[in-house]
Amino acid sequence: MNTTKQQYLTAIRADTAYPTYRAIIGIITILGYLFAGLCLLGSLIAGVSAIGDSFVAGVGIIIGGAIYSGLIFLGAKFGKEAAMILADIGDSITDANSRVAR
Questions:
Q1: Low-confidence residues of the chain: pLDDT under 70
Q2: Which of 10, 18, 28, 95 has the fewest CB atoms nearer than 10 Å to its CB?
Q3: How far apart are CA 41 and CA 97, in angstroms?
Q4: H or E segment and range at residue 27
Q5: Whole-angstrom Cα distance, residue 61 to residue 48?
């Protein structure tokens, strides 16, 4: 991304009209990351305990849990980006319209 665009995004995010929305986006993203980590930990524990009965089943649980956790992580990251885009659009429109109204 070119630096002018990045500077503009940094400026509108610093002077946002939607600080609560942006804060909640951050909280939901962190909760998504934590959930992904807990799913991964749970699959590791379940997989290791299942290896005693069946090696293939235990490894399958670990791999399946890792894939599921990765999808949750990517979903949380994508959701944050999508929500930030909406807030950036709202802030850009508000910024542009406030200049025209003057």
A1: 1, 101-102
A2: 10
A3: 48
A4: helix 19-51
A5: 9
Decide: helix, strand or coil at residue 59: helix
Sign of CA dihedral 75, 79, 81, 82: positive
- pLDDT of res. 3: 85
What is the distance between the alpha carbons of residues 74 and 77, in angstroms, rounded to a whole number?
5
Our CA angle for 83, 86, 92, nearest 5°, is 140
Residues 66, 43: contact at Cβ < 8 Å? yes
Per-residue confidence (pLDDT) for residue 95, from 0 to 100: 85
* Length in residues, the chain: 102
Q: For residue 67, give the amino acid letter.
A: I
CB environment 60-94: b (16+ within 10 A), e (fewer): ebbeebeeebeebbeebeeebeebbeebbeebeee
- Supply the pLDDT for residue 96: 84
Record the pTM: 0.84
